[in-house]
Every structure is written in structure tokens, then in C-alpha cells.
Amino acid sequence: MNGLKPDSPMPTELRLHSQSKILEIAFEDGARFELSCEYLRVYSPSAEVRGHGVGQEVLQVGKRDVNITAIEPVGHYAVKLVFTDGHDSGLYSWDYLYELGARREQYWQDYLNRLAAAGAARD
Questions:
Q1: Does the pLDDT of residue 108 top 90, yes or no?
Q2: Which Gene3D superfamilies does UniProt cross-reference here (predicted)?
Q3: Helix or strand (DSSP H, E) at 27
Q4: CA 85 to CA 66: how far, in whole Å?
């Protein structure tokens, strides 16, 4: 089992822009996304961030300046991103990266709304 669904889009390019803190990812269907390191960090698929069920998510704060220090392949279906704040436990499947790209505006606004509701900040 490789972790991919039969119709999973495969990436054709994965490039980290360290200065701008952007991970650029292109897929074989022509989709191309630029995802900030902060966005990727606050939406880490790790249990540390997502919790162990609905409603158990842990709001990530103070991640505006986080960057990625390493991208490690995991089989042919995912990458492990290592962040400057030491976080490295999330496995980002191609499907999840595609979803994060396709729904970026909605997810980012959801994150900003949760921060505001908690009286927290990105810094």
C-alpha cells in the first residue's frame, strides 16, 4: 500500500523558496500552488496539531516567521517537512498538499478567524 488513491494527483515539482518562505508545488494535472511555510506549519497533519479527533485541534500561534529547513521524502506518497521551530512530525501526503493548495484561501481565513476568536496572534 503506497498511501495513494487511484486518482491522486502526483507532483511534478517541489521547490522551497527559503527567502520568501514559500513551498511551490506543481502537479501533473497542471495545478500549481505556492504555500507559505507558516500555512503549512499551522495545518500540519501531525497529531500534535490536529489532535486525536474532531474538536481536539491545537491552535498554532506565533508561527509567522517559521521556515522549512528540510524536506524528506516518505515513499512515493508524501514528504516530511522539518520546520525551524523544531516541528517535524507531520507527513504531508500528495493528496493533503493538493487539498491545502486548492482550499488555501478558505483554510487561511478559517485560521485567522480562530486566532481572532482566541485573542491570539501570528507573531
A1: yes
A2: 3.30.2020.30
A3: strand 22-27
A4: 6
